[in-house]
Each structure stands twice: as structure tokens, then as C-alpha cells.
Amino acid sequence: MEQSNLDLPGTATGTMVVTEPLNFWGGQRVKPRQQANAEPVFEPATGRVLCQMFPCGSEEVDEAIKSAHSAYLKWSKMAGMERARIMLEAARIIREKRDKIAKLEVINNGKSITEAVVDIDVAWQCIEYYAGMAATLAGQHVQLPGGAFAYTRREALGVCVGIGAFNYPFQIAAWKSAPALACGNAMVFKPSPMTPVTAVLLAEIYKEAGVPEGLFCVVQGGADTGSLLCHHPGVAKVSFTGSVPTGKKVMEMSAKSVKHVTLELGGKSPLLIFKDCELENAVKGALMANFLTQGQVCCNGTRVYVQREIMPQFLEEVVKRTKVIPVGDPLLDDTRMGALISKPQLDKVLAYVNQAKKEGARVLCGGDPFVPSDPKLKGGYFMSPCVLDNCRDDMTCVKEEIFGPVMSVLPFDTEEEVIQRANNSPFGLASGVFTRDISRAHRVAENLQAGTCFINNYNISPVEVPFGGYKMSGFGRENGQVTIEYYSQLKTVVVEMGDVDSLF
Ligand SMILES: NC(=O)c1ccc[n+]([C@@H]2O[C@H](COP(=O)([O-])OP(=O)(O)OC[C@H]3O[C@@H](n4cnc5c(N)ncnc54)[C@H](O)[C@@H]3O)[C@@H](O)[C@H]2O)c1
Ligand SMILES: C[N+](C)(C)CCCC=O
């Protein structure tokens, strides 16, 4: 069996066992203090145990936060240009190790290598982008009467906590740490207990690039460890990515000590396809909106509203293309859909398809467990991508986030009607519209209640543009310039140049 040494060449599906410690603080990997409560971590493509995840307890969380705090004291005093240089070096190292990190991500997460490589590219781009912003952080100078003046300083918050979901393990760690570090903060990151393997690589890379020891720490664990982080008095901010129910708990816990909070939560995003669209692009957009990462994407456009006149052509084309998506070994270059994250997640998604059938939906393709011919993949968590027709707005598959490769297609007649139906959801993460009518495109974008609207494309998230939700999909933003606001605070300094004009 191969170990997870990144320098090992030729790792293949079904061969890796990870034995090194996955915690990181004080500038090194840290062995778990106790072996109790170990949870097996599975390789989704095979169902094999990849490693054990040992959750950190209160003493370990405390050590990590102390380590981060001492690094913060040094890092926050450095000039933006000095921080930028180190962050650029981290981005360079990620670029250099991209293929190896991507492989490990695939083995732990189950997504295709084609997607994982893009995820790692987005990670280094994010660090590079915020490195560019680090030296631009500045305050204002305000002239006051009598020669007095004030100025503002944009200051770091302190130790920030990042809590990640399982679907983009390395990318989420980068999306959170890059703006945090650019602003002078330290970060303690907790990955999902199902994907504990790659965040520690980011910690090693930051260290190699030259950050002070402890600046980016990794603690492993699930809800209990997450809860220790949210309650910890040494933490200034929690940036959370995950489901709505967990997000609510994170907010509640963080409120006890008035921590800053960013919530990147779930969605059930609408994609509106008008009859005047370029149909082939709309079909491609619908596939991109539903089937990346086996459908386990927060901003997926899983409610696909198609104008009635073009429904037959749309369905024919979307089903034809869905049926030929190559599902299988995620480490092979030709694979476009790998395995879902876990057996319970696969069972949950299949149950949603069954429920949809009971409620009157018609399965046009997929929705079944998929067993690849390669014997080593027999225990993997694969399913065939599914298109559901005959859907109504009141069906469970249309209302709830499924987090699997299931597209629900619904007909509509008018723009006004479809906007009202699209907005009739507690979520508001993303949305999309396909039309050739430029006025309609922008009118629809204005009226959809969502943090992002894609016009004539879907799931494009360059790091330069803000990403985040409306309504129950959360608040705060990741990426883009605005995220600096969420990782810093403004101090006003008022300077008297004359005598004090006392009222007393
Ligand atoms: N908006 C976004 O940017 C975004 C991105 C990715 C995923 N998501 C959402 O994440 C969900 C899927 O991810 P998941 O299944 O990993 O989500 P989840 O809510 O189950 O877990 C997310 C993280 O929260 C931790 N956690 C669980 N209970 C906790 C508690 N009580 N206190 C603190 N932390 C706790 C988990 O260990 C994990 O690290 C979906 O709803 C998806 O839409 C959102
Ligand atoms: C990179 N995507 C595809 C926009 C996904 C962002 C993270 C959501 O789960």
C-alpha cells in the first residue's frame, strides 16, 4: 500500500493509505493526543478505508489557537508587501505541486481529476489574488477643524476559524485563508471529517513559503471540535461553509461571544431557460449547473425552468448528453463523474429520486446506483446522473437541496411567472438565465433574489468576483475585493493639534 507522501509517483485508485498525522500547528504536523473516537475516512471510489480521523479535543483546540495567536502577533505587524511576497510564494508552491494535491483530493473526495485540477488552480489563484491586495489595504485621512485630523487604519481581527464542507476541501481552505492572511489574521481551519487529508498540505505549503509558525493551523474533527472552535474566547471570527442547519448552530454559538461570522450555506438555485436562448449553450449550461462534483455543489442550478415551447428539444438534448457522461474511476482523465462522498449520501440522493417518482416526477435517465466494470470500484458510491421531468414546484425534489446529480426540469410560460416561482424558495445562493434578449437578461438578473446570477453560462466563479448568498444561503462573501471587509476591522484615530477645548 502506498503512503500519502506527495512525492510518490503514480498513485492509483484503491492503493493509498494515509498514516501521517493530519493536524498541524506550531509549524508541524501534530499526532492526535488520544486515539479515542477515531472515525474511518473512506475512499469514495472504492469504499476502502483511506485513513482514520482522530477528532481534536479541547486541549488540542486550545493549543492550535494559542499557536495561531502567537503567529498573528508577528504577521499582523508585517507590511502588506511582506505578507504578499510570502503568499505569492505559497501560490507558486501550490502551482508546482498541483497535480499531486489534485490526486490526493480525488482519492479523498471522489470527484474527477479533471475537476480537481481546476479546484487546485482556483486555490492558488485565490492566494495570488489576495497577495495582490495585501499591500493595497489602507485607511483614509480626514481633515478636521483647527488643524486637527483623523485617519483610519484597516486592522486584522485576530485568530479566525475556518470550518469547511466536504465538496471542495482544498479550495475552501484557500478561499478562507487567503483573504484572512492578506489582512494580517491567523487561521485555524477545520476540514470536514469526511475529507481531512488535503488541508494539512496547505498548512505545510504556507510554512514552506515562510509564514510565521502557527499562522495557518489545521485541527481535525466533526461537530464537537467545530463547537469548541465556535465557543473559544481566543477566536475573533468564524467563517463557515456547510449546510443551513449547521450554519444556524455556528451563528448561535458565535453570538455568545459576539464573534464575526460569515456563513456560506446551501442552495436550491433556479436556472431559467427562455425560448429565445441559444439552445445548445443552454443545455451545456444546465449540465454544468447540475453535474459538477457529482452534483454536490452548493450553487448548483437544480431547478431548471424551461419555457414550454422549447421543452421537447431541451429535454431530448439534455437527456442525450446526460446519458453519455462517463462515470467511473475518478483518477482517469476521461472520467467526468466520480463517486459521491459517502454511502449515506448516495442512499439519501437515491431516496430523493424515489420520493420524486412517488410524487409524480418522471425519470428520463439515471437515478440508479452505478457499478463500474472495474472490480476495484465495486464498493464505490457511484450513481448515474439523473434528469427528472414532470416536476412541480411543490415536490420535495424541487424544494430541498439534494446534493447529488439530480436535475429537476419544470415548464414555464411567462417571465413574470418564472421569476416569482424562482424566488419562492428560502434559499438564495445563485441563479442563472439563458436568453439572447439582453434587456431580459439584465431585468431577470435584477429581479432574482440570489447572491449570484449567471447570464448565458453557469458555475463560473473566478476569484476576482464575490461569491455568497441571499436569504438562508447565508451572508458575508468570499472572493473579490469586498471580502477584505469581512476579515478586517476599521480603527479611527482622531488627532488634536491644538489645545483641548474643555466644557468643564
Ligand atoms: N455556500 C457555499 O459556499 C457552500 C460551499 C460548499 C458547500 N456548501 C453547503 O454545504 C453542505 C454540504 O456540506 P457538509 O455536508 O459538509 O455540511 P455540514 O453542515 O454537515 O458540515 C460542514 C462542516 O461543519 C462542521 N460541523 C458540523 N456540526 C457542527 C457544529 N455543531 N459546530 C461546528 N461545526 C460543525 C462539519 O464537521 C463540517 O466541517 C451543503 O448544504 C452545501 O450547499 C455551501
Ligand atoms: C467553484 N464552484 C463550482 C463555483 C463551487 C463553489 C463552492 C460550492 O460548493
From TrEMBL:
One Pfam family matching this protein: Aldedh
Record localization: Cytoplasm, Cytosol
InterPro entries, sorted: Ald_DH/histidinol_DH, Ald_DH_C, Ald_DH_CS_CYS, Ald_DH_CS_GLU, Ald_DH_N, Aldehyde_DH_dom
Molecular function via GO: 4-trimethylammoniobutyraldehyde dehydrogenase activity; aldehyde dehydrogenase (NAD+) activity
CDD domains cross-referenced by the UniProt entry: ALDH_F9_TMBADH
GO CC term (a single one): cytosol
The keyword Cytoplasm appears for this protein: yes
Family, as annotated: Belongs to the aldehyde dehydrogenase family.
Catalyses which reaction(s): 4-(trimethylamino)butanal + NAD(+) + H2O = 4-(trimethylamino)butanoate + NADH + 2 H(+); an aldehyde + NAD(+) + H2O = a carboxylate + NADH + 2 H(+)
Main localization category: cytoplasm
Pathway linked to the protein: Amine and polyamine biosynthesis; carnitine biosynthesis
Positions of the Aldehyde dehydrogenase domain: 37-493
Classification via SUPFAM superfamilies: ALDH-like (SSF53720)
Protein name (record): Aldehyde dehydrogenase domain-containing protein
Function: Converts gamma-trimethylaminobutyraldehyde into gamma-butyrobetaine with high efficiency (in vitro). Can catalyze the irreversible oxidation of a broad range of aldehydes to the corresponding acids in an NAD-dependent reaction, but with low efficiency.
Active site, per annotation: E264
Subunit structure: Homotetramer.
Keywords noted in UniProt: Cytoplasm, NAD, Oxidoreductase
